[in-house]
Amino acid sequence: MQWKSKTLGEFIIENQAEFQYSTGELSKLINAIRLAAKVVNHEVNKAGLIDILGAAGETNVQGESQQKLDVLANEKFIQALRNREIVCGIASEEEEDFIAINSQDDNHQNKYVVLIDPLDGSSNIDVNVSVGTIFSVYRRVTPQGSPVTLRDFLQPGVNQVAAGYIIYGTSTMLVYTTGHGVNGFTLNPAIGTFYLSHPNMQFPETGRIYSVNEGNYIHFPQGVKDYIKYCQMEEGDRPYTSRYIGSLVSDFHRNMIKGGIYLYPKSSINNNGKLRLLYECNPMAFLAEQAGGKASDGYQRIMEIQPTELHQRVPFFCGSRKMVETAEEFMARRA
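and the corresponding structure tokens:
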């Protein structure tokens, strides 16, 4: 197979002017994420051959059982970002608190913070189902020259300067935005290079797929139950097809290509929802909006929510614009 598309490195250089405020740091940051993604991809593809499957025997700050690859991915991404000396702080879903990064001369001049879910969908690793990495980038709000603080991380999603994900599937892709559309890059494993394979990715305005864990149906709010019944009705272009992988990156990626809606609402067992605002919902909302889609908590725009804590959870409705708007209508009727 001969690739004629530009590489990720070439794309970053060509689009450097779109990175507001940046004098090269954001480009280096994306490159650091690209490097760590290649390392994690290599390990994911060895799962089953070496002892990296199964639980690590510990729980993370979320109270969830850590998988061995969770720990490895977390270490690799933090290491790549720390070694490049391009961020002033990192927050990870796997860490209880943020990590402050000092620049080489210890004068705290770096501009950006990164929030990351190192291995989304890791419960699927043992059964060879696609997993992913999600990242979000903000420009710090505290003054340069001072240590990073919690305030730098507790920013609403509208302040993001970049966000993206890596999906480790039948092919490995890095999909990201800097606020100028969404572009996808596929890894050619033979030479270890990402090539632009999906330029200007767009959510279809509507679709015929709904993605929700229907095993929790009995615990859902009535508005969500009503919307699911609507999706199942034989009327117009319905019934819709139910497709739920259980890996946010995989479900989002499919729905962006084919058209659909992803729902993880609050429930009687997860009163605030289960997905994390900062590590999962905000970056995916940024991508969705840049691709012509929509993301909300059922009532308001995800990216306008003011975070109050590092590991805050929120309900999440995301996907094709018209489908999300219809789900919001059902929620409003039961408010």
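(Above: one complete record from the training split.) Helices lie at 8-14, 25-44, 68-84, 222-232, 248-258, 277-290, 321-333.
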